[in-house]
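$ ./design --mode recover --in tokens.txt
reading tokens...
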């Protein structure tokens, strides 16, 4: 009604551009983080997030990694909602925070955004 010429086209362009937004989060492999990631994925699915989302998980034991990957596959989320595991762990006190920035760097180098 009161739309200016081209406003609908601009809205369509913004929606198309939002498909290219690749959201990334980083957390450790503790149980509370797993449910936070899963909730983020469910929320994104519920609002119709069309762009990819990657959760980078750090400090996972091989057993925990397998458990998290199994759970992720089982819940039936869209394939553009992905997990990426960062294997390197820092054992010195106070260095565990390096897993987050280095996890993003490793993901970007190995896979990168779409």
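writing sequence...
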């Amino acid at each position: 009604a009161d739309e200016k010429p081209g406003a609908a086209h601009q809205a369509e362009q913004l929606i198309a551009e939002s498909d290219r937004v690749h959201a990334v989060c980083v957390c450790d492999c503790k149980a509370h983080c797993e449910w936070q990631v899963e909730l983020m994925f469910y929320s994104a699915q519920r609002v119709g997030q069309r762009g990819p989302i990657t959760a980078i998980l750090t400090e996972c034991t091989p057993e925990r990694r397998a458990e998290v990957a199994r759970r992720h596959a089982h819940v039936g989320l869209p394939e553009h909602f992905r997990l990426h595991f960062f294997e390197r762990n820092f054992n010195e006190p106070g260095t565990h925070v390096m897993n987050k920035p280095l996890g993003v760097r490793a993901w970007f180098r190995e896979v990168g955004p779409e």
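exit 0
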